Amino acid sequence: MSKLPAQRTASIALAATAAAAALSLAFVTSASATADAGPAPSVSGGPEGAFTRITDFYGAYIDAVYDGDGALADRLRAAYLSVPLQRELRTWEDAHHADGVLRAQNVPLRWKVTSTGNGMGKANATVTLTWGGDTTQVLVQADLGTRRIVSVKG
Questions:
Q1: What is the pTM of this model?
Q2: Looking at residues 3-17, what average pLDDT do you find?
Q3: Among 39, 50, 128, 146, which is least packed, fewest CB within 10 Å?
Q4: CA distance 122 to 128
Q5: Count of C-beta atoms within a 10 Å radius of residue 112
């Protein structure tokens, strides 16, 4: 085996050191940018809350529709929506040729669910759907006892 000339060995060592320094700088810069951007987003909830069920449903449903998984979207409807609401949505969809849960023909790019309080045995929420630069709002109610979504209006 032949030895590398001293100058080439020094060049390889220098290149390796520079690459390691650049990688370290990139990592530190990335970590600083993340830290400067504010706290990391978080989501929480619990299975007993009707409001949490609304947020869980809309998040999972939008993901399923976005992914083109109609079977999952149907299973989510069956699990989270009351039977009368499922019938009402089918009627609305036939009349409007759109998704009754989203009140649209396409899928929003972002969503946000805001509680508007409880009353008359219902959890009330406003679902804000963002479509590029436009937003729409859907008013949703879930029964506090069954935690099933019983109304979608908008």
A1: 0.74
A2: 45
A3: 39
A4: 19
A5: 14
